[in-house]
Amino acid sequence: MKRSKFKWNVVDVLMMAIGVVGFIFTPNQAVANQKITAAVVAGFIQTFQEIASAYEAKTGIKVEVTFSSAGRLYGQIINGAPYDIFLSADKERPDLLFGKAISEKPFIYAIGEVVLWSSKKDFCSSNNWQSALRQDGVKKIAIPNTKTAVHGEKAQKALQDAGLWDLVASRLVYAPDMAQVFQYASEGAVDAAFCSLALTYTEKGKKGCYYEMKEAPDVVYSACVLKRAKNPELARRFAAFLVSPEAEKIKKKYGYKQITAKH
């Protein structure tokens, strides 16, 4: 009888151990298989990558991202692209998606600026960006597509308001998004570029110099969770993390302004 009882106890212990192992590993495996897909404006690339890494480290949930211009991403979403969340560099496009009942209510997640940047330190010897563009040696200037990229739209407005659009129009080199613009400038393919202030805080950005463009309107970054999200709750959790104190510290590192009520 004692022998039989001993066998029963061993089996019982083994079953309990299996149960504990299952309890420990099953949730982690489930989290490892969870992910969200994000459509993110290219001007936010470095900052987003750091935020996404912090979120993945904290939650175990992967963030798969596609970077492009706000206009291109908006077009993809309208045509049914299966993203869970859209991070734009304007308020208009997320508002349009909300108006079309394609997304949940948008929210502002960052406030940025447009600058005139160059990989050449001597480019910043002028008093301001307007004077810099009048330099004889400035032959090519990169700018994001003014119809699909928000920073391109803002730069164009500043140029027009300063009466410089006609002067530089023939020297402009258009790129589909901010990432491409910055690549042109950092590799020396152009003399200067209109880009996001955040890019000047990157390793490559710090090697060059830039002019602030106070005449260009702030870039108000808005995002929205899409109604076709495969897991809306996961998308909402990530949306909340985008405006959390942890994410705000990362954004501050890249020069983004504090979000205020006026925006």
Short description:
The protein is an alpha/beta fold and 263 residues long.
Description:
- With 263 residues, this protein is an alpha/beta fold.
- It folds into 2 domains: 34-112 and 220-253, D-Maltodextrin-Binding Protein, domain 2, CATH 3.40.190; 114-212, D-Maltodextrin-Binding Protein, domain 2.
- Helix content is 43%, strand content 20%.
- It is built from 10 helices and 10 strands.
- The strands form 2 sheets. It has a 5-stranded mixed β-sheet, with helices on both faces.
- Helix 2 (45-59) runs antiparallel to helix 10 (245-253).
- The longest helix has 31 residues, at 2-32.
Features:
263 residues, 10 strands, 10 helices, disordered N terminus, five-stranded mixed sheet, 2 domains, D-Maltodextrin-Binding Protein, domain 2, alpha/beta, 43% helix, 20% strand
Per-chain topology:
Elements: H1 2-32, E1 35-41, H2 45-59, E2 62-68, H3 70-78, E3 85-87, H4 92-99, E4 107-112, E5 114-118, H5 129-133, E6 141-144, H6 150-161, H7 165-168, E7 172-175, H8 178-186, E8 192-196, E9 209-212, E10 219-225, H9 232-242, H10 245-253
Parallel strand pairs: 1-2, 1-3, 6-7, 6-8
Antiparallel strand pairs: 3-10, 4-10, 5-8, 5-9
Helix pairs in contact: 2-10
